[in-house]
Specification:
This is Putative spore protein YtfJ. Keywords: Membrane, Transmembrane, Transmembrane helix. It comes from Conyzicola lurida. The structure is a single chain. With about 110 residues, the chain is an alpha+beta fold. The protein folds into two domains: about 80 residues, no CATH class; about 35 residues. Helices cover about 45% and strands about 35% of the residues. It contains three helices and four strands; from the N terminus they run H-H-E-E-E-E-H. Strands 1-2-3-4 form a four-stranded antiparallel β-sheet. A hairpin with a 2-residue loop joins strand 1 and strand 2. It is flat, with a radius of gyration of 23 Å. It starts with a helix and ends with a helix.
C-alpha cells in the first residue's frame, strides 16, 4: 500500500505547475490564465497487507488570474480569496490590540 501512495505522490508532484496555472481561456477576446494555490499530502502505512493504511488529499484556492492586455500580462487578484485570507488576520490583530489596551488600562488602576 505504501508503494502505491509513493507512486501516486510522485505523479501528482510532477503535475504541480499545471495545477497552479490553468489552461488559458478567452473571454470577450481577452486571454486569461487562472492561478490558484494548490497543495496536497499523502501518507501510507508500513504493513505489506491490505490493512496497511494510506491516503491523501489536497486543496486548491483560486487566487487570481493573469490577464493579457495591450501592455502585456498583468496579475489580477481574486478579491474573495484576499478577503478569506485577511479576515482571520484582521480578527486576530483586533483581539491582540484589545488585549494590550485592556491590559494597559488595568495596570494603571492598581
Amino acid at each position: 500500500m505504501a508503494n502505491i501512495v509513493q507512486n501516486l505522490a510522485q505523479q501528482v508532484t510532477s503535475v504541480g505547475a499545471r495545477a497552479s496555472y490553468g489552461d488559458p481561456v478567452s473571454i470577450d477576446g481577452v486571454e486569461i490564465v487562472p492561478v490558484s494555490l494548490v497543495w496536497f499530502g499523502f501518507g501510507g502505512g508500513s504493513d505489506n497487507v491490505e490493512n496497511g493504511g494510506g491516503g491523501g488529499g489536497g486543496a486548491s484556492i483560486p487566487i487570481g488570474a493573469y490577464v493579457r492586455g495591450p501592455a502585456g500580462a498583468t496579475f489580477k487578484p481574486n478579491p474573495t480569496a484576499v478577503l478569506a485570507v485577511l479576515t482571520p488576520i484582521a480578527w486576530a490583530a483586533s483581539w491582540a490590540i484589545a488585549a494590550v489596551a485592556l491590559g494597559t488600562n488595568r495596570r494603571r488602576r492598581h
